[in-house]
Give the backbone structure.
Amino acid sequence: MKAKILLVEDERDLSMIICDTLRQQGYEAVPAFDGVDGLDKYRAEEADVIIADVMMPGLDGFAMAREIRRISDSVPIIFLTAKSTIDDVEKGFDIGANDYLKKPFELRELLARVKGLLRNKAQRPCNENAVHQIGKYTFDATNQLLILNGKEAAISNIEARILEKLAANTGKTVDASEMMIAVWGRDEISNRNSLHGYIHKLRRALRHDPNISIINQRGFGYTLAIKHQQL
């Protein structure tokens, strides 16, 4: 079956060019021209990948993605934007974006990123109700929650995916490149900086159990270590 790509882009000429290119590559391309239209079409038809402009009238790409993440925490989202400040990129990843592409861009680069996300999605195991015990914390990966003493704290989609990778390999070093490919579909300098930032956020989220640490194995990756864990 053809992979379905939902393109949410208010520039109609650009939308037509991208959709035509996607169809030539064998994908089913579904255009939407603003965030409300994109959200409605995703609710009605779903999609295998969403490509969304950030700056759109009415409901912008960020707001649309927040609503989509309430429906699905796994559908890959690529943001297209003329803005590329670190704050904007971090905001997009916090919402749950998988990738970011700055305008103007080469169509073949967009295609490469779509292919990478589809390949990563196909290789990712489906872990329904995935729950990990991390020291005193219960980590509900499916619902992106850290639970301590009955209190729930939500973490972002990207944080949950990184922590899930670490938790599945507790006590072992997870290669940074492997982690970035699992989360973003590729290893790039910008993603390395983002990964370091998310590791810092996870350390803060787990700070109430002093026996938990995320160790930076410089030049290799990261290790989730738990001292005095009761078996």
